Amino acid sequence: MKHLVAGNWKMNHTSREAAEFARRLIEKMKPRPSADVWIFPPFMLIQAMVKAFEKSDVRIGGQNMHHEKKGAFTGEVSADQLLDAGAKAVIIGHSERRQIFQETDAQVNLKVKAALAAGLAPVMCVGETLAERESGRTSDVVLSQLRAGLKSIDRKSVATLEIAYEPVWAIGTGRTATPAQAAEVHALVRKELREILGDAGAGIRILYGGSVKPDNAKDLMSRPDVNGCLVGGASLDADSFAGIIFGAQ
């Protein structure tokens, strides 16, 4: 299974900074890496990044979307609008959306279905907080989010679905799940994907997200069912992001 390295820029980079990032990353990606590379910039930078990477294999995506096609939803964007801007993928249910903006499992489920129906590749995120891990609830929380997010999903529609396991306690904290901890949860997720989706669940990539850096990426992605990484802060710098990309070889 081909690895996927995805960079989530969150609310970072101006157009000038993004252009310089693209220039440097394109240079760094010679020769072409074996991993798939996706970047999720802020909405207003999507079109510029699509153009900047048009001669490469890098895909551009959105960091969030609304499940409705259009309407009175100030500040939101639809799947069709992301596609119109050139996006090919979208992050859904990131822990910051769940924690800060109180996004529910039911909303995540609606967004996943809308993304798949529109032709966007959803990267659906699941993960536990530090309190949940310390109380021994990691499995319950992660699998509950997975089941709810994929509720009533048509098995025939999930070819482009990606899952990201992102322990909340490791996001932007400098703390990282050990490769063994990541592999343990990824194995649980894989087993559950097979339960929910049958044979289709075996082909879905499961990414790890949480303080991924060039010095730990290779070890993480060498573990069974760790099929790539969803990178936060380290994806803002072309050199560090390239280090992670080539760590996926």
What does this structure look like?
With 249 residues, the protein is α/β, with parallel strands linked by helices. The protein has one domain: Alpha-Beta Barrel (TIM Barrel), CATH 3.20.20. Helices cover 41% and strands 14% of the residues. The protein contains ten helices and eight strands. It has an eight-stranded parallel beta sheet. Helix 8 links the parallel strand 6 (162-165) and strand 7 (205-208). Helix 1 runs parallel beside helix 10, helix 7 packs parallel to helix 8 and helix 9 runs parallel beside helix 10.
- Mind telling me the CATH class? Alpha Beta
CATH architecture: Alpha-Beta Barrel
Strand content: 5-15%
Count of extended strands: 8
Low-confidence stretches: none
Can you tell me the number of structural domains? 1
CATH superfamily: Aldolase class I
Q: Key terms for this structure?
A:
8 strands; 249 residues; 8-stranded parallel β-sheet; TIM Barrel; alpha/beta
Task: Compose a concise summary of this entry.
The protein has helices at residues 15-28, 46-52, 79-85, 95-99, 105-118, 130-134, 138-149, 179-197, 214-221, 238-247; strands at residues 4-8, 36-40, 59-62, 89-92, 121-126, 162-165, 205-208, 228-231. It is α/β, with parallel strands linked by helices and 249 residues long. The chain is globular.
Write the SSE topology.
Layout: E1 4-8, H1 15-28, E2 36-40, H2 46-52, E3 59-62, H3 79-85, E4 89-92, H4 95-99, H5 105-118, E5 121-126, H6 130-134, H7 138-149, E6 162-165, H8 179-197, E7 205-208, H9 214-221, E8 228-231, H10 238-247
Parallel strand pairs: 1-2, 1-8, 2-3, 3-4, 4-5, 5-6, 6-7
Helix pairs in contact: 1-10, 7-8, 9-10
